[in-house]
Amino acid sequence: MARRTREDTDNTRTTIVDRAVDVASTDGLEGLTIGRLASQVGMSKSGLIRHFGTKEKLQLAALEAATARFTAEVWTPVAGEPPGHVRLRAVCASWVSYLRRGVFPGGCFLSAASLEFDDRPGPVRDEVAATMQRWLWVLARDAEIAREAGDLPHDADPQQLAFELNATLMGANWAHRLLRDQAAFDRAQVAVDRLLGGSSEHEFEHANMSA
Amino acid sequence: MARRTREDTDNTRTTIVDRAVDVASTDGLEGLTIGRLASQVGMSKSGLIRHFGTKEKLQLAALEAATARFTAEVWTPVAGEPPGHVRLRAVCASWVSYLRRGVFPGGCFLSAASLEFDDRPGPVRDEVAATMQRWLWVLARDAEIAREAGDLPHDADPQQLAFELNATLMGANWAHRLLRDQAAFDRAQVAVDRLLGGSSEHEFEHANMSA
DNA sequence: ACTTATAGCGTACGATCGTTCGTGCTGTAA
DNA sequence: TTACAGCACGAACGATCGTACGCTATAAGT
């Protein structure tokens, strides 16, 4: 009854990877196991690993899929906003919403993978680091545009702002997952609002006349 | 040649636990393995696990020791400072220094354990959550005292401040471990300074006259 | 001196890990 | 119809996991 065409193969692979992402978000990329994953998708171990060759490749595939999911859920909805202050606010709101919605059953995949692999050299660690570095750049770029447009203090440091925004959102994920603190999302939004200036009006063109 | 006294036993246990903490800080509490740990301290598996009974007990012992190390390195040095704003600034500086010094070879133990166990029900998760909750309370308490003393805006939210301080420091640990970013420590200090008011003088008693 | 408690070891168990190999079965192409 | 390419399977591999049992040797208590 199965047709075994190339198209079906891709579907199988997608099914496996999607499940792997969910499992890894709760149990970690290392806690991900071929045997358990196989039984969850109704396959044999050998039939499953065949699509990847090795567990590390499976981890990389899961990481890639998780990154795509993050991008689709957080960035894509706001990519069309005007670059700079407006988009930066939008992406942070989207980010909070992404956490609130529980896109990954085990909390932010990239947060977990970051701390799991930060001491394990290899392609997985490299990919996680590169992905997060890229994300910080995305944030810093809009921060820089906002600064040049006068929507942030002229002496604001885009990279510092990106660091703090990232820390805030990761902190919200942490508090929600470990402490089951639903208020963490609101706290994150409050912190973001303060970092990016008041909730609505703002102009910094004429600030910092002294010092 | 071994003397096998109660005192020596405790020393052995301490040796094991200390090593377990270091290993777990890099490989995770689940990545911690009885066999590898035993060979690292020059013991047999059975001789080692005998001190704990089960792996979960070993994990709990490592967690307890890690908490003690964190407390000794971060809190104890500043416990004598005047409660409130002064001590809060001191504990944050001590916290940054703790990260900078690399007290744990794999980065902040509690950060890693938090994200590793936030989805694994059991006594380890419970203990991690309780420890972190206590830590947030410690921060919030001094924040409250500082607020009452007029060293913070009278409408400041101690729990919000504790959340943001914690997120900032965890973010620094993250950036340092994953991105090998040494500047993360400075960024964290900058963020802390802004959260707790300017670097030196500050008074908020007469602020917020409107609104 | 004799008993008792205990630290540590060696061995073994069943389970599960990632990976490899050989074998069908199915849809596509020649 | 025949040949082929590819998906999935079952079985088995060696390794390692956590744990249990039994033994020896020593220090402490009587």
Short description:
Two copies of one chain form a homodimer. With 211 residues, the first copy, chain A, is an all-alpha fold. Chain A is built from nine helices and no strands.
Broad structural category of chain A: mainly alpha
Q: From the structure provided, what is the oligomeric state, counting identical versus distinct chains?
A: homodimer
Helical fraction of chain A:
55-70%
How can the largest sheet of chain A be summarized?
Answer: none
Beta strand count of chain A: 0
Q: Which regions of chain A contain 5 or more consecutive residues with pLDDT less than 50?
A: 1-7, 205-211
Radius of gyration over C-alpha positions of chain A, nearest whole angstrom: 20 Å
Could you report the average pLDDT of chain A, rounded to the nearest whole number?
92
Could you walk me through the main structural features you see in this protein, from its secondary elements to its overall organization?
Chain A is built from nine helices and no strands. With 211 residues, chain A is mainly alpha-helical. The N terminus and C terminus of chain A are likely disordered. Chain A is elongated and about 60 Å long. At the A-B interface, α6, α7, α8 and α9 of A face α1, α6, α7, α8 and α9 of B. Chain A binds a DNA duplex (30 and 30 nucleotides) through α1, α2 and α3.
Topology:
Two copies of one chain form a homodimer.
Chain A: H1 6-27, H2 34-40, H3 45-49, H4 55-75, H5 85-101, H6 109-117, H7 123-148, H8 158-179, H9 183-195
Helix pairs in contact in A: 1-4, 1-6, 4-5, 4-7, 5-7, 5-8, 5-9, 6-7, 7-8, 8-9
The structure holds a DNA duplex (30 and 30 nucleotides).
